[in-house]
Amino acid sequence: MDVAAAILVKRHLRDCSQCQQLLEARKALRALLNNPQLQFEVPDSLRQKIQSALPVATPSARHRSVERSVIPWFTVPLALAAALAVVFGLQFLNQRGTFDRWGGNALAEEVISSHVRSLLAAHLLDVPSSDQHTVKPWFDGKLKFSPPVQDFTTQGFPLMGGRLDYINGREVAALVYHRNKHIINLFIAPSESGRTEAVRSFAKDGYNVLHWDRDGFEFWAVSDVSAGDLRAFADLEMRQP
């Protein structure tokens, strides 16, 4: 899709719970089918056992028998694998939990996608402001929680503002910072575990993602800045009271 179509779809997903569930189920199914544990090759020994179990017949009859018996048989494990993938995908959707329970890579890739979309769709900021006392009240009434907002200008990570975003099947707060002309998106949502958890990292296609839990919130920081700079940013946020 082009950028305009992507924006329209994104807006529709915010208001349509049925489409949200379909999209998340599709993502979960795709992730599970890409799991190497669900991929296998049929060994020659199994093929030989099946052929030896068939009744002896003329070559032409045997060929027709193999077509009738073997091909449908091999569709059974594929159908079972797809069914299991859907079942496990729905179980993952019901959890809608932390980085680990979702399988960190899948969620981290979704965070990266949201970061890239915010840059491409010219929808980086809903409330452009470097004043944390302006940004924090802006979220009141728009979210069911009040995200912590900090400005790290003196430490080299100025606050640019914030916006609403959508990750892991729920609305989140997105705070935007910059570092040497690079954008950092900090996504914040309530933590279901309520525990404080150490930083976890993920990297793909030049983007770095950090995730941690603190004081009842989950945080995802994502950017194309160096891993060291992003970790310095996360350390600043984690030290806040």
Distance between the termini: 43 Å
Proportion in helices: 40-55%
State the CATH class of the largest domain: Alpha Beta
Can you tell me the overall shape? elongated
Strand order of the largest sheet: 1-2-3-4-7-6-5
Topology overview:
Elements: H1 3-15, H2 17-33, H3 44-53, H4 59-95, H5 104-120, E1 127-128, H6 132-138, E2 159-167, E3 170-179, E4 182-190, E5 197-204, E6 207-214, E7 217-223, H7 227-238
Antiparallel strand pairs: 1-2, 2-3, 3-4, 4-7, 5-6, 6-7
Walk me through what this model shows.
The structure is a single chain. This protein is an alpha+beta fold and about 240 residues long. The chain has 2 domains: about 1-95, no CATH class; about 105-240, MucB/RseB, C-terminal domain (Phosphorylase Kinase, domain 1, 2-Layer Sandwich). It is about 45% helix and about 20% strand. The chain has 7 helices and 7 strands; from the N terminus they run H-H-H-H-H-E-H-E-E-E-E-E-E-H. It has helices at about 5-15, 15-35, 45-55, 60-95, 105-120, 130-140, 225-240, and strands at about 125-130, 160-165, 170-180, 180-190, 195-205, 205-215, 215-225. Strands 1-2-3-4-7-6-5 form a 7-stranded antiparallel beta sheet, with helices on both faces. The protein is elongated. Residues about 65-75 and about 85-105 have low confidence and may be disordered.
